[in-house]
Specification:
- It is built from two helices and 33 strands.
- The protein is mainly beta.
- The relative contact order is 0.13.
């Protein structure tokens, strides 16, 4: 092949790849995607709960799926991240890692950001992968980095680690700053109005400046905070092991209200149309008035809830350790349908409707 031919061939490939990265999600599909401890990722009809397809891995799928360019992207405890065809579940690519993945991938600007969720080897990594091919762009390594799910805003990656919150350059993976808490950071950060909010297992919720990592305020709860915060209408909503959901003033950290459940709140809250939804280890999904904390309704499952709710215009979807994914009517709290998997569901669902609109749980409505 002549030099000019090679040049134009490479340009053609580059153009095709760039076009693929900007490809929209398909229309005409009403589906909800969720992982299970039975080693599978499921695709179900979002309206009826009917089975569409599943993809089998070699480990539990606790990671929450992300949707991008016609694919479902998810991690597994089998130490791989997978990209699957959204219509069929056929594997498009996989990327091998050195540890199991329980955090959720985050996709932005043609890049998948995904990390390890374990400290088995006391060294973990965050990877940036090409969304089309799965090829590695960069990796970030830190001792004991037990990776939360990343949040990417304005060219920065915010991610919780062993005892730190890190801010990284999204293109290079270089560290911009880190903030040390008193214990592990399993909570995934939320970013709003120039501040990043995150919980820590040192019982505190922190608000830090996005540019410098300087602490603005901290709020102490009565237990570990592995729930991820959601920011809406000037409030930070977050759960704690002390069995409470808190609403805090986003500027000052002052408590606006608290709601007591009968179990630790691992679930990350989601806010929609003035209602905050959260699960609890007391087996229930709650709907509360976001301004007052007054309960609108509660809906029972038959086991603890570690999954976070995903809320569409009319339905809340949430998984339970009873192995079921539930679809709950937003107005009444009544169950529309449930689907039984073969293992407990820690994963939080992702939803795609027929107009190609996506819905995710928690973190300002972006991601778990």
């Amino acid at each position: 092949m002549k030099k000019n031919s090679i040049y134009f061939f490479c340009i053609l490939l580059l153009t095709a790849a760039c076009s693929k990265k900007n490809e929209p999600l398909p229309k005409g599909i009403d589906a909800v995607f969720v992982g299970s401890s039975d080693n599978k990722l499921y695709a179900l009809n979002a309206k009826t709960g009917a089975f569409m397809w599943d993809f089998v891995t070699k480990g539990a799928v606790h990671s929450s799926p992300t949707l991008a360019i016609g694919m479902v992207i998810v991690g597994s405890s089998d130490e791989k991240v997978y990209a699957l065809d959204i219509k069929t579940g056929a594997k498009v690519w996989e990327f091998p890692m050195e540890m199991g993945i329980s955090s959720a991938p985050f996709v932005v600007d043609g890049t998948v950001y995904v990390g390890m969720g374990t400290t088995t080897k006391f060294t973990s990594k965050l990877y940036a992968l090409d969304v089309v091919t799965g090829a590695k762009k960069w990796e970030f390594t830190a001792d004991g980095l037990s990776v939360s799910s990343p949040t990417i805003v304005n060219g920065k990656v915010y991610i919780g680690g062993f005892t730190n919150l890190y801010a990284l350059d999204a293109k290079k993976g270089t560290k911009l700053w880190e903030f040390a808490t008193g214990s592990g950071v399993d909570s995934s950060p939320a970013v709003a109005d120039g501040y990043v909010y995150v919980g820590s297992n040192d019982y505190n919720v922190y608000a830090l400046e996005t540019e410098t990592g300087t602490k603005k305020w901290q709020f102490s709860t009565g237990g570990e905070v592995s729930s991820s915060p959601t920011v809406a209408d000037g409030s930070v909503f977050i759960g704690s092991f002390d069995r409470k959901l808190y609403a805090l003033d986003s500027k000052t950290g002052a408590k606006k209200w608290e709601f007591k459940t009968d179990g630790p709140v691992f679930s990350s809250p989601t806010v929609s149309n003035g209602i905050v939804y959260t699960g609890s280890n007391d087996l229930k999904l709650y709907a509360l008035n976001a301004k007052t904390g007054v309960k609108k309704w509660e809906s029972w499952t038959t086991n603890n809830i570690r999954s976070s709710p995903t809320v569409t215009d009319s339905v809340a979807y949430i998984g339970s350790l009873d192995g079921k994914l539930y679809a709950i009517d937003l107005q009444t709290g009544n169950k529309k349908w449930s689907f039984q998997t073969g293992g407990g569901i820690y994963s939080s669902p992702a939803v795609l409707n027929s107009a190609a609109k996506t819905y995710y749980p928690g973190v300002s409505g972006i991601q778990q």
